[in-house]
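haha ok so turns out i had the wrong file open the whole time. this is the CORRECT one, sorry everyone. sequence first:
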Amino acid sequence: MSGDEPESKSLLKRRAKDVTELGVLLAERTSVQLSRLPYPEIVTAVETYQRITKGNAKKRQMLYIGKLLRKVDLDVIERLIDRFNSASETGLMLVAASAWCIGVCLFWIYLLPATNPWYLPVGVSLLRLTVKYITIWICVLK
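then structure:
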């Protein structure tokens, strides 16, 4: 498709549906997570959607959220959703890094003291430090 030709109506509808689906994912976030969005109008619209209980009203509100999302940079929205999605690549990397750190600490605590008793306090200190940093990472991601 060249730059002069208008986009097909079907393509525009598909894009609008994709953005609305992004709005559904956004509506699954908590108000604390939503507060990190730089778009207060979208935050308000999503919080309103979360309070609505009637089916048709929810559908209309979601369409409104999709309309608002089409006006903003979707990268920010996608990053927020990805950040709080436990199955996201970032979440999986955090779990893997945490498991590795705990494994190293357990190595220091259980295997090395057999060769030298000095290693036990080092392992315990490493484990405390690891738990502290994992807690900080989790708080930052929330």
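The chain has a mean pLDDT of 80.
again sry for the mixup
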